[in-house]
Specification:
By secondary structure, the chain is of the alpha/beta class.
Length: 116
């Protein structure tokens, strides 16, 4: 229990200063999709045709994109707070600031496939 409290305190401290993500409406402009999910208790991400990336792979891909001002949509089929928070941290670390949360199915993305 002690480790859980210490871990939770560390997680909350890491999120200090970040506004909470809320789901964007389906009418709002679609951004660059990053599909967020979990597989076997581990966070997995999908970008374009790369449908099962870990956090390091996602960060390296996003860091290499040249246009950091573009909108990023974190798209999920079920709410996985841990994975959404991690994805958001990775996007910020890669240099993106316009990050939105979307429910899978609200929009159709031609540049990405959801994790299978």
């Amino acid at each position: 229990m002690k480790y859980l409290v210490v871990g939770l305190a560390g997680l909350l401290a890491g999120c200090a200063g970040m506004a909470p993500l809320e789901f964007s409406s389906a009418e709002q402009y679609a951004g660059y999709p990053v599909f967020v999910g979990s597989e076997g208790g581990k966070c997995r991400y999908g970008v374009q045709d790369m449908i099962s990336m870990d956090g390091n792979s996602l960060f390296n891909w996003m860091k290499g994109l040249p246009e950091k001002s573009r909108q990023i949509d974190l798209v999920l089929d079920s709410e996985t707070e841990k994975c959404v928070g991690r994805a958001r941290q990775l996007m910020i670390k890669a240099g993106f600031t316009d990050i939105h949360l979307r429910k899978f199915g609200d929009l159709t993305y031609t540049s990405g496939l959801p994790p299978g």
